[in-house]
């Protein structure tokens, strides 16, 4: 099983120590990095701040299709307070607020 993490540098360091393919996405290449990882991964993790940069349609489709499963995770550099990402995920899963 190949897991890929798309994150900031600090978060990537932690995942690399655990042997996970961790990729730093630059601000202008987040969407492309996300699509490339979806094509390669069996499981895809992306930090909440980077997920916020994706279009709502892109993130919704990726979560809904679950091929590969996509999980939004907190970044090590940001507090766990990303209500917009949570709302997007809840909407895509059909869960009420």
What would you note in describing this structure?
Helix 4 packs across helix 5. The chain starts with a strand and ends with a helix. The protein has helices at residues 9-17, 30-40, 48-51, 56-65, 83-93, and strands at residues 3-7, 21-24, 43-47, 70-73. The protein is α/β, with parallel strands linked by helices. The model has no long low-confidence stretch (mean pLDDT 87). It contains five helices and four strands. The protein is globular, with a radius of gyration of 13 Å. The longest helix is centred in the middle third of the chain and has 11 residues, at 30-40. The chain has a four-stranded parallel beta sheet with strand order 2-1-3-4, sandwiched between helices. Helix content is 46%, strand content 19%.
Provide a quick synopsis of the model.
With 97 residues, the chain is an alpha/beta fold.
Structural features:
globular, 97 residues, alpha/beta, Rossmann fold, 46% helix
Reading the helices and strands in chain order gives EHEHEHHEH
* N/C terminus separation: 33 Å
By secondary-structure content and strand pairing, the structural class works out as: alpha/beta
Mean pLDDT: 87
* Strand arrangement in the largest pleated sheet: 2-1-3-4
Q: Any idea of the CATH class?
A: Alpha Beta
Q: What is the count of distinct domains? A: 1
Shape: globular
SSE layout:
Layout: E1 3-7, H1 9-17, E2 21-24, H2 30-40, E3 43-47, H3 48-51, H4 56-65, E4 70-73, H5 83-93
Parallel strand pairs: 1-2, 1-3, 3-4
């Amino acid at each position: 099983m190949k897991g890929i993490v798309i994150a900031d540098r600090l978060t990537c360091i932690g995942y690399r120590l655990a042997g996970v393919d961790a990729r730093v996405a630059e601000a202008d290449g987040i969407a492309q990095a996300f699509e490339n990882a979806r094509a390669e991964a069996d499981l895809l993790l992306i930090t909440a701040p980077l997920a916020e940069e994706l279009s709502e349609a892109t993130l919704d489709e990726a979560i809904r299709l679950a091929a590969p499963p996509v999980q939004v995770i907190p970044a090590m550099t940001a507090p766990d307070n990303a209500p917009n990402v949570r709302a997007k995920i809840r909407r895509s899963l059909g869960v009420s607020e």
